[in-house]
Amino acid sequence: MANQSIHTPNPDVEVLRSAQLTGDATADDIESIRKRTSVYVYEVPVRLWHWVNALAIMVLCITGWFIGSPPPSMQIAEATHQFVFGYIRFAHFAAGMILTFGFLGRFYWSFVGNHHARQLFRLPLLNKHWWSEIWFEVRWYLFLEREPKKYVGHNPLAQAAMFFFMTLGITFMIVTGFALYAEGAGQGSLPDTLFGWLIPLVGNSQTVHSLHHLGMWSIVIFVIIHIYVAIREDIMSRQSMVSTMISGHRTFKDDRPE
User: Fold this and answer.
1) 121-138: b or e for each residue (b if 16 or more CB lie within 10 Å)?
2) What pLDDT is recorded for position 252?
3) C-alpha–C-alpha distance, residues 131 and 126, integer Å
4) DSSP states of 177-197 as a string?
5) What is the DSSP-derived secondary structure letter of residue 165?
């Protein structure tokens, strides 16, 4: 029996020997792999919306800049032979339509998707623990905490930022954008019927233009911070960030519960 136990293969050793054939894995590496876990967080519609929405926002910001600050001259061809500004406006309107219908689809998915899909549209304002977690995340981002916490979905501070800058921000941009679009569509058109009331409510179309322009800059600032934080967390936190919005899986770098 003793000889038989000596010759019984150790599964850990066999895995390690196999790993050494294709890499330099050690016993510590194998143990680390066992500890890493992942959770399926973001479903395909959520991830698809995220990247399509990002592309639409980029097109809208670039074309919106040129609409708000047109170039003084277009040295491409004679004025009668070019339609550059028209193409810019068309790209802006097309991206706006994609943004709008994508946002409506994302809102629908918050009801039929998993519970993580609802974070973008609902804040637990009455939850005291949620507020304490926001304060912790503020300290973490200010480098006042030594170690971050682990979250499956958005952390509370990110959830609040996404709600105000994306949920409310996109809603504001859609409403003001279609109100301006209604001027060109004409009275009695569908955009005018749905959003034409905003211009007389605010005062005039120039005020709506200014508000729409300021909304664009607020989203630009949010996007810059969002990209910085995502990359920073991917490096410094205990869970994956950027790859999660590609694969849908949140991977944790240790097996501690918090």
Assistant:
1) eebeeeeeeeeebbebbe
2) 86
3) 9
4) HHHHHHHHH-TTSHHHHHHTT
5) I
End-to-end CA distance of the chain: 45
Could you give the 3-state DSSP secondary structure of residue 36? coil
Render pLDDT for 143-201 as a digit per residue (tens, 0 to 9): 999 999 888 889 999 999 999 999 999 999 999 999 999 998 888 899 999 999 999 99
Residue whose C-alpha is closest to residue 57's, from 189, 144, 165, 141: 165
DSSP 128: H
Contact 157, 180 (CB under 8 A): no
Domains located in the chain, CATH noted = 43-252 (1.20.950.20)
Paired strand residues for 75 = 77
Under 8 Å between Cβ of 208 and 199 = yes
Q: Which two tokens stand for residue 75?
A: 């040295």
